[in-house]
Amino acid sequence: MSTVRIPSAMRAATGGAKDIEISGATLREVIDGLVAAHPVLGAQLLDVNGQLNRFVNVFVNDTDARYLDALDTVVGAADRVLLLPAMSGG
């Protein structure tokens, strides 16, 4: 199972959980499993087309998933997935 790190801004949707173990062979399967367990996260993580929402950054082992294969990125049991809400400001 991959470990998904939940940022503090999203922990209300996971009952306060900081780390969640989710099985899946790809990032898409891990995200789908996370959303199945915590449906409120769906709108935060995925857009209407089922792709990564542009307002969230997802890292697999410290590499932005958009620079890998996005949701098709292969993940293993020892991999860490980090969710980070995009920050903006001026």
Shape: globular
Largest sheet features: 5 strands, mixed
Low-confidence stretches: none
Tally of strands? 5
Order of helices and strands: EEHHEEE
Distance between the termini: 39 Å
**In CATH terms, what is the fold-level topology?**
Ubiquitin-like (UB roll)
Structural class: alpha+beta
Write the CATH homologous superfamily.
Answer: Beta-grasp domain
Beta fraction: 15-25%
Overall helicity = 10-25%
- So what's the oligomer here? single chain
Mind telling me which CATH architecture this is? Answer: Roll
User: Could you say how many structural domains there are in total?
Assistant: 1
Task: Please count the helical segments.
Answer: 2
Strand order of the largest sheet: 2-1-5-3-4
Global Rg: 12 Å
Query: What is the CATH first-level class name?
Result: Alpha Beta
Please describe the structure with a list of short key phrases separated by commas or semicolons.
Ubiquitin-like (UB roll), 5-stranded mixed sheet, 2 helices, 90 residues, alpha+beta
Care to give the gist of this entry?
With 90 residues, the protein is α+β, with helices and mostly antiparallel strands. It has helices at 27-37, 41-45; strands at 2-5, 19-22, 56-60, 63-64, 80-85.
